[in-house]
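Notebook, bench 3.
Goal today: get a predicted structure for Regulatory protein RecX from Blastococcus jejuensis so we can plan the truncation constructs. The sequence was checked against the plasmid map this morning, with no discrepancies at the termini. Length recorded as 219 residues. Pasting the sequence as submitted so the record is complete.
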Amino acid sequence: MSSFPSHRRGPGMRRGSRRATGSAGDGPLNPDLAGEPAAGPPEDAPGDPEAVARNLCLRALTGAPKTRQQLADLLAGRGVPDDAAETVLDRFTEVGLIDDAAFARAWVSSRQAGRGLARRALSAELRAKGVDPEVAAEAVEAVDDDDERAAARRLVDRKLPGMRRLDRATASRRLVAMLARKGYGGGLASAVVRDALDSVPGDDDEFLSAHEDQDSLLP
């Protein structure tokens, strides 16, 4: 009868122990590492600065348009070197992903129609976002005097119903102050408020009392 060859354990080896060198199928030598993924680079490992800048800008632009200055501030805050940031910002400008003039026009249209802001307030907001003063001025020119007056009147008409219990002087003062916060000059604000209060029905005695000179009510 033939017999299977015997496997003799060498010195220092116990039954069931794994050989020190084995095939890949033998698994890790350290049982504590079983099931652990292979170690990779740390998450914060530095990459190509331009690639980092591109990804940051693309993510920022996905939510809403941004000015060049807004993106530059973002990159600086994330530690992107100036030369890499400038390269990426220049490229984005060339392909139209950054367009401060288009941003300014859209901003003026939206804020003037939605919030009723005057040209002075619109210009201040655009400057705060880093838009060049000349570019901002060109965008704001789309709002003319008639647009401003109409927007101011809409703001006043929207507030009037909540002021029915006030006398005319108090209502005037509050309405003029509200328009001033929206960027309207004192002359226009006073005229618009006066016209709005004069249009209130004559039987509303509370609004028609204490008719004062509006110029004295400027904040």
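The chain has ten helices and no strands. Residues 144-219 form one domain.
Flagging this for group meeting.
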